[in-house]
């Protein structure tokens, strides 16, 4: 493959950066960062107020792109706590002023990309995660804790413990108390304790800290990407800590600006409390960043496949957590994917839509945990409150809506909820829901009577479904007669179920 240059621009609430890489190896040609952007007093993402500074930096980046003759440019932004309508306004302003079109990424997408990079590019990761490893990623608005077992991702938690939020709380407390650390420790504990029952405390557990520039600058040597962090100071922080952290703690020597100074104590306490809960044998810090994760997607052809595996794992985890019938889930997932593959000329959707259908098939019944009556609605709002790692906001919405419409309600012009859905996803939701509902009817008894299925589209607009079964399909046929109507309505093709004996 001929070498070529690709550029990634990444906008965060506190800075904007540019990295130019040479493909296919991903060698870094140029790496530039802006100065610190002012965070908002209310929302952390302060892009509108920083627009002039951001545009000036982007114009400087464009000159460098011109100097290096780079035409393949990808512009990403961390949406953080920015409202969707505000994100559209900011994106439009940036495109008008710079000609660059931004793609907003949520925290789940950024985390998946970064974790994938840590797993594949941190040479020591395989050894560190041989038993149990927790990856703690610090953020401005929230923190994320991911769990790896025997090198494989298993689950993650996003927790409302952002460094900026805690820093602001510290400032408010200082107006009423001389030593707010004890209150902050209790506040952090209250946010972390709810996941404590799910955490595994093994003898050989490792805690790996990511997105902590003060730590990485202090401990990691030049040319390396990993360093060990002493345990004792963190144990001490859980017992007692005074205001001297600002001036006397070793980490303070690596603070480069006022914002890092404000985040030092909150992040220190978050790390200390997390360490107390997971009880690690050792703690390490890595300097692999969000930008590394974004760039990795272009340099590593397997990066998206790895993210897709994380998405599937997260879906299986939430299905298990809400008591989904595993055999029924596997049946529906298997045949939904088969229907999707064999009906491509009919639905004309891409492989990403196939992934969304697969995920929806795994989690469509989680609402039964609340109530079997109208379980599809319960499934939808559970999914809306538990977005899956690696997926965009639109992707998560599609999965929730497909779950909503997989059973009784139909996505039609007369359905108020469906009418208010974004035009961009309405048709995708309808097509995927029609396929899932059809497949779901084939195991209405939850006994997996069908072992094989053959599909045939006929010239007279029929879809013949020949099902090999080891038992009578009386209930399945009755359910099929009702649930197949949506497929006919969406695709203009009438499904016909033909039973074949399995003996």
UniProtKB/TrEMBL annotation:
<protein>
    <submittedName>
        <fullName>Exopolyphosphatase</fullName>
    </submittedName>
</protein>
<comment type="similarity">
    <text>Belongs to the GppA/Ppx family.</text>
</comment>
<dbReference type="InterPro" id="IPR050273">
    <property type="entry name" value="GppA/Ppx_hydrolase"/>
</dbReference>
<dbReference type="Pfam" id="PF21447">
    <property type="entry name" value="Ppx-GppA_III"/>
</dbReference>
<dbReference type="InterPro" id="IPR048950">
    <property type="entry name" value="Ppx_GppA_C"/>
</dbReference>
<feature type="domain" description="Ppx/GppA phosphatase C-terminal">
    <location>
        <begin position="313"/>
        <end position="475"/>
    </location>
</feature>
